[in-house]
Each structure stands twice: as C-alpha cells, then as structure tokens.
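Person: Please comment on this record:
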Amino acid sequence: MGAGAALPVGVVVALVPAFLLSRIVRVAAQWERAVILRFGRFHGLKGPGLLVVFPVADYARFVDTRLLTLDIPHQQVITRDNVPVQVDGVIFFLVQDPQRAVVTVQDYRHAISQYAQASLRDVIGSMTLDELLSERDQIQARIAQVVEERSRAWGIHVDSIRLLDINMPEDLKRMMSRQASAEREKRATITKAEGDREAAVNLAAAATTMAQSPGAMQLRTLQSIDGLGSSPSNTVLLAVPVEVLELAKALTARKEPPGT
C-alpha cells in the first residue's frame, strides 16, 4: 500500500521540476524574436536560440519576423460612379520592429487587417468602375502606400497588397459582355474594310500595269490556263473578241482574187 502511494508522488516530484524548467528555458526559432517584459516593462529582445525567462518576473511574447500573409475578406464597395462591387484581396507584410509591434498595438495582425479593409474601401470608393478594372496595379500600390504610412508606427512593413477578385452585379456583367462583343465586331468590320480597300488598290495598280503592257495580259492569261492543269476533266473555252473575228474576215476577203 505504501509503495503504491509513493509511486504517484515520485512522478509528481519528477514532473514539477521538468515543467518549471520548460517555463524557464525557452527556444526561439531562427525567424522568431522574443519580446521580454520584466514586471510589465519592456526589458529587451532575445533570440534566436536558447533564452532564459524568469518565472513571475518575466513575460515572453514570441514574434514571427518572416513574410506573413493575411486575407482581406470580401468588401462591399460603391465606386464613384455608383456601381456596387465586391472586392477581396491579400496583404503581405513583415514585422521589422518586434518591440513596437507588441508594445504599441494590442494585436498587430488584427489591426493591420482592419486598416487594410478600411483603406481598400476608401481607395476603391474614390474611383470609377473603368478605373478599377483597368488600373489594378495602381490601385494595389496606392492601398499598400496608405496602409504602410500607418503601420510603420507599429513596426510593420507592408510588402504588397493584391486584389484577388472583383465581383459585379450579373446584369452589369451581361451588359459589359455585349459591349465587348460589339467592340470586337466593330474591329472585325474595320479590319475587313481596310483589307478590301488594300485589295482594290492592288487590283487597280495591276490593271494599270497590264493596260500599259499588252504582253503582261497575255502572259497572265497563259498562266491562268496553265494553272488549270492537264486533267481530261478540265475543259478550256477561249473567247475570241468580235473585233478579232472581223479583222480576220477582212484580211481573208482582201487576199481572195477578184471574181472569186
């Protein structure tokens, strides 16, 4: 009975020092920095590697200094030309000053997320729909600049902000689709008209050349006949002008002796 009761006591005695040691000796990864608060005041930064945190006196807040991402949820925004759109995105940032990120703001992740959402609504609300669709890079840079100006005081650097999706009302999408289709048909008609005009100019130039050189017309005729091939199924009909027939008849009558 006594030996059975002593076993749990021994386990507890062994676990208590191990637990205290785990609370005193901490390990910070290569990308982490520990903000140490001693008796509630900022004491210093530690890490990476092993660090000692004194119980009761010290409090350690670990901060990830790698490039971090936060989703910007769908935001309902009305553009300057009164078109309702839904926009979402993602923000890329990193903590450059862990001390300010912990001391000056309660939750820097939540704070930068909320500020990015508000900045996105403000910037997009000052633009028209056409500007939103055609100037995405400029909009992203402008939102990032606005957020960076505020988050710099929190020890945070905004790397970039990307707009992922822009949703518009379905009737507006159909209208834009019809407009794009009409624009494509317009460009196709203009292209065809320009092609017809160039073809007409080339044909006129060819006709002028052939009119100035009768041999060119005959050569072209022979080329066309040759292009038909030698297949028995091809029948070539040569139309002789009436003037040529009359000229041949006149020459024949002139050569015949009188009284024939």
About this structure: Residues 19-64 form one domain. Residues 170-212 form the longest helix (43 residues). The CA atoms of residues 225 and 231 lie 12 Å apart.
